[in-house]
C-alpha cells in the first residue's frame, strides 16, 4: 500500500479509499465472511422455500402461501445473513485496533475524518455489492425449490435484490461506526445483535403501545420494513431513511470518538 504517505496524504481521499480497498481484499477474514454469508443465504433460501412449498401442499388450506416471489425468499434470509456482513464491516476497524495496525493507518492518513470516511465508503460498497450478489444467489436457490409456486416477476425480483443490497450497505456502515466507538470485535457484535435483534423483540413483546412504537425505529426493524414493506408505522422508503439515519449517527459517533481518543 504505497499509495498513501504521511506528508502528501497519498492522493488525498481517493488514495485513502484505494488503500482501504486493497487492505480489505488482502485479508482472509473478508473471504471467510463472504463465504459464510453465501452459505447462510443458500441454507436460508433452502429452508424458507421448503417451508413455503410444504405450506402450499399440506392438508390445511389456512397455511397456503400461494405464489411466492423468489426475491422475497432471499430477503427473508437476510435476517441471518446480515451478521456475516456485519462481521466483515466491523473488522475493517476493530481488527486494526486489536493488532495495533491503526497507528500505521493514521500515520499514512493523518486526517482522521478522511480515514474514517474512506473505511465507510469501502464498507458500504462491499456490503452493498455483497447484498446484491447474495440476494441473487438466494433467488437462484429458491426458484427450483418453489417449483410451480415460484413468482418470477422480473420487476419484483429486481426490487427485492436492490432492497437487500441497500440495507446491507447501510447496516455495514452502522457496524463500522459502532466498531470505531467500541474498538472491540466482540463488543461491537454484541451491541449490534442487541440493537438489531434482541431489543426490538423485547420492545414488541411489551404490550405497551408507546414502547412497541420505539421498536419500529431501530435499524433491524426499519430495514425489514423497507425490504418487505410489512410495517404499519410508515411506508417502506421511510424504513430506508431510518436505517440511513442510524448509519449517519454511527459514523458521527465514530468520528467524535476518533477525535477525542488516542489511537
UniProtKB/TrEMBL annotation:
Name of the protein: ABC transporter permease
Keyword Transmembrane helix in record: yes
Organism this protein belongs to: Actinomadura rugatobispora
Lineage, highest ranks first: Bacteria, Bacillati, Actinomycetota, Actinomycetes, Streptosporangiales
Keywords of the record: Membrane, Transmembrane, Transmembrane helix
Domain of life, source organism: Bacteria
Regions that span the bilayer: 31-53, 73-95, 116-142, 154-178, 185-203, 237-258
Amino acid at each position: 500500500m504505497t499509495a498513501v504517505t504521511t506528508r502528501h496524504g497519498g492522493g488525498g481521499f481517493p488514495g485513502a479509499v484505494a488503500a482501504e480497498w486493497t487492505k480489505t481484499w488482502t485479508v482472509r477474514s473478508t473471504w471467510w465472511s463472504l463465504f459464510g454469508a453465501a452459505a447462510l443465504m443458500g441454507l436460508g433460501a433452502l429452508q424458507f422455500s421448503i417451508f413455503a412449498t410444504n405450506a402450499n401442499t399440506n392438508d390445511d388450506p389456512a397455511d397456503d402461501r400461494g405464489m411466492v416471489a423468489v426475491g422475497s425468499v432471499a430477503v427473508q434470509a437476510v435476517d441471518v445473513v446480515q451478521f456475516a456482513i456485519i462481521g466483515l464491516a466491523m473488522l475493517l476497524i476493530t481488527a486494526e485496533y486489536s493488532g495495533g495496525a491503526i497507528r500505521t493507518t493514521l500515520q499514512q492518513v493523518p486526517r482522521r475524518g478522511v480515514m474514517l470516511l474512506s473505511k465507510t465508503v469501502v464498507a458500504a460498497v462491499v456490503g452493498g455489492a455483497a447484498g446484491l450478489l447474495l440476494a441473487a444467489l438466494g433467488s437462484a436457490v429458491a426458484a427450483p425449490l418453489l417449483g410451480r409456486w415460484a413468482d418470477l416477476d422480473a420487476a419484483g425480483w429486481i426490487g427485492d435484490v436492490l432492497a437487500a443490497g441497500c440495507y446491507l450497505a447501510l447496516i455495514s456502515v452502522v457496524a463500522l461506526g459502532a466498531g470505531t466507538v467500541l474498538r472491540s470485535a466482540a463488543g461491537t457484535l454484541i451491541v449490534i445483535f442487541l440493537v438489531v435483534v434482541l431489543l426490538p423483540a423485547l420492545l414488541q413483546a411489551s404490550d405497551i403501545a408507546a414502547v412497541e412504537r420505539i421498536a419500529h425505529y431501530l435499524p433491524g426493524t426499519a430495514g425489514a420494513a423497507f425490504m418487505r414493506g410489512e410495517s404499519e408505522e410508515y411506508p417502506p422508503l421511510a424504513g430506508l431513511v431510518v436505517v440511513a439515519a442510524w448509519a449517519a449517527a454511527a459514523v458521527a459517533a465514530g468520528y467524535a470518538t476518533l477525535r477525542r481518543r488516542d489511537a
